[in-house]
From TrEMBL:
<comment type="similarity">
    <text>Belongs to the isocitrate and isopropylmalate dehydrogenases family.</text>
</comment>
<protein>
    <submittedName>
        <fullName>Isocitrate/isopropylmalate dehydrogenase family protein</fullName>
    </submittedName>
</protein>
<keyword id="KW-0560">Oxidoreductase</keyword>
<dbReference type="Pfam" id="PF00180">
    <property type="entry name" value="Iso_dh"/>
</dbReference>
<dbReference type="InterPro" id="IPR024084">
    <property type="entry name" value="IsoPropMal-DH-like_dom"/>
</dbReference>
<feature type="domain" description="Isopropylmalate dehydrogenase-like">
    <location>
        <begin position="3"/>
        <end position="327"/>
    </location>
</feature>
<dbReference type="InterPro" id="IPR019818">
    <property type="entry name" value="IsoCit/isopropylmalate_DH_CS"/>
</dbReference>
Length: 331
């Protein structure tokens, strides 16, 4: 029996978590779930954004399914997401942008996987106050972190039958930091002659993505660019509501929806659970249940193809519960 740590999150988090767990339970797999609050709900109850019980569960179970968590802005709190990624050395943030049936966007058949280095760059949060009028943010790039995310991208390309890996950088300006990342990419690419490799400056990569996303396959980049470009690729397939994410290290893995907690619609039973549900499929593959993951993705495709049951953001009127019911009916 495998136990999964589940973080219900804030805002719409509890609602979409309930919908996803209903679907996972229906698979009748040997899985159990330890469910916790984290974020503002947890802070209100115990004064901590991430209670110690959550860390104890993560250390024991090593696999986490996480709904959106709110971090208070401008009040001295570190991002919950960044804390978790750094504490558990979840160096590979993998965000697949894959077109879903009959979701209206300017593009079809998009299939891009972004590998985002997840532990350094500007996301270390290191800032130095020089004066009341000047602050310096530290951009940290190391060979160790760069090499392991780049190798992860190439290994994924080989394992999944992908044909190209694109490195995104700004080495024309940041010659030392992004220059190191780029040089690591060029060195490692030589060990994978069966995979085409290229590099693009980040602003050019953004333009190319919205002009012709089909030219891209697997993309790898430092932390900040990965944050920005993965949001961009989500826009190519219908938005963050359909984009799953995995944060994977050597010992731990957290699977999550990357969209926000949407407090304006919390409690209304109208949120789209697809991002978290697709993340749970990513999780099932990771722990050895690829057939069951495909059962869910096939059910999602069937529901979307029929165009009868969709939440408001997908052009329908269905509730979160009704959408989950429709997927359960197709399993």
């Amino acid at each position: 029996m495998k136990t999964i740590t589940v973080l219900r999150g804030d805002g719409i988090g509890p609602e979409i978590t309930e919908a996803v767990l209903r679907i996972l339970h229906a698979l009748k797999l040997p899985l159990t779930f330890e469910v916790f609050d984290a974020g503002m709900n947890a802070f209100a109850n115990c004064g901590e954004l991430i209670p110690q019980a959550v860390h104890d569960s993560i250390k024991k179970n090593r696999v986490v399914l996480k709904a959106p968590i709110t971090t208070p802005i401008g009040k001295g709190f570190r991002s919950v997401n960044v804390q978790l990624r750094q504490r558990y050395d979840l160096y590979a943030n993998i965000r697949p942008a894959h077109s879903l049936p009959k979701i209206k966007t300017p593009f079809c058949d998009v299939d891009i996987v972004i590998f985002r280095e997840n532990t350094e760059d500007l996301y270390t949060g290191e800032e130095i106050v020089i004066s009341d009028d000047e602050v310096h943010a530290i951009k940290k790039i190391t060979r160790h972190a760069s090499e392991r995310i780049i190798r992860a991208a190439f290994d994924y390309a080989c394992a999944k039958g992908r044909h190209k890996v694109t490195c995104v950088h700004k080495a024309n300006i940041l010659k030392k930091s992004d220059g190191l990342f780029l040089s690591c990419f060029q060195e490692i690419a030589q060990a994978y002659p069966m995979i085409e490799s290229e590099d693009l400056i980040v602003d050019n990569a953004c333009m190319q993505l919205v002009m012709d996303p089909h030219r891209f396959d697997v993309m790898v980049m430092p932390n900040l660019y990965g944050d920005l470009l993965s949001d961009l690729t989500s826009g190519l397939i219908g938005g963050l509501g359909v984009l799953p994410s995995a944060n994977i290290g050597n010992d731990y893995a957290i699977f999550e929806a990357v969209h926000g907690s949407a407090p304006d619609i919390a409690g209304q039973n109208c949120a789209n659970p697809l991002a978290l549900l697709l993340a749970s499929c990513f999780m099932l593959e990771h722990i050895g249940y690829p057939k069951e993951a495909k059962r869910i993705t096939d059910a999602i495709d069937k529901v979307l193809q029929e165009e009868k049951v969709r939440t408001k953001d997908l052009g329908g009127t269905a509730t979160t519960t009704q959408f989950a019911d429709a997927i359960l009916a197709c399993l």
